[in-house]
């Protein structure tokens, strides 16, 4: 028995010596030479989650002592266990708290006690987030939110209707409140809106019912210093635009409106009286009609042109799938992929409102950079009219296209050269809207793939024939007519170069009776002026023939070579041509293009 006691004592002594040696070893680390004040600043900057503070205390004694003495590290208590929550609150020493509560079926009795303890600190809570998932809180828990919250600055409540039906949130006393986000609010109850006063940020997401015009005006008038506004399906219904009195919001910087239709987004903008152009982001769930599109863009244009705001300098159009497209615009000369842009619009293509109809409203007439990413060519064979609005973009100097947009973008550049190719009606006759292109050098079948990696020599010969300037051809030029449907009139759109009055055009292609007769290239060229005449830099990338959905029988390299050669001949030579990972454009093709451009960058396509 005595031997066992001696062994235990010896073990404790050895453990103490080990701890002492570890402390001395940690003290030799360079970071240990930092003053405690500076080390505290590092901890506060790096610990974004509650678990990070616990990890710091397990490194060494010095770090633990420093971390425990920083109240700000413990302002976001863990709510998984009651004892853990108590320790966090004790170490916070009265600092403003950041509380996040999630109610779901997995909540244990211990966790519910921890949640109630955290909500009891309402007079010390600065940030509060409440998420109701699969279990509703009981009345005993909700009553803790019916007390004043003097320090509360930011509140986000998911399924807020559950709370506002039972209690008056924070007893209406929130003098420091700046940011409010309510998801699934019920305007019919009318409770909880009294705290929406003097805000800087307001987000109302998918309310259970739409507010009335007076309720929306009251909300906006209560926060004249508003800087950020996010409204999701909150536009009042049943009112004429002429009946709306705009609310002055001179400090508003960001506006997001999500609605089913674009006309609803535009109606919401009428409620806002702005002194400068905000960052504007619009999103729609359903396609718009042609008439609504015209009226909507008149309102959107008025917001984008507030106080003589300069035009956007760069833009990007992205195909999102399922007929959805996103237009983004920046005030900077180049596209900033790290930001959302100063303007963005998620819209839907439909039979009544085609891509060509949308493109004529793009707010990019002054842009210098344009990017197309996997866009438009998905449907352009049934919507050739989308090419025409690009005639307005005379200031474009940088053009980039990626994925399936590459083929269509090259054909946009060669639109004035279309007499070199032939539009052919579908095999089923003129009723079929599908249009395919045929090369004057050779026409492949509709179901045949374009060139593969194994056909380098064929493509090189084809390109060589093209460069020799052979004028022979086996296809006649089509007769291209334009059918237009006028919706309304607008001198503003006429002056901006858009198709007037919301008119949309679809190119109708008709073959002449004698298919063997060839039209004059010079006449066709005169009818179709060169698009983007000031273009200096062209980039095409990530184009894969195996995933391209378009049925094209004109090879990409053929059209690209013809466009580059034509620009060089017209004294509008490209300064830079970048071809990155485009299947079908091989090194021999790139070498031949080199003499027609200033600088050429070529990256081979990845092998499958």
UniProtKB/TrEMBL annotation:
Low complexity bias spans: 469-481
Biased segments, Acidic residues type: 448-468
InterPro entries from the UniProt entry: F-box-like_dom_sf
Region: Disordered, residue numbers: 426-481
Coiled-coil residue spans: none
Protein's UniProt name: F-box domain-containing protein
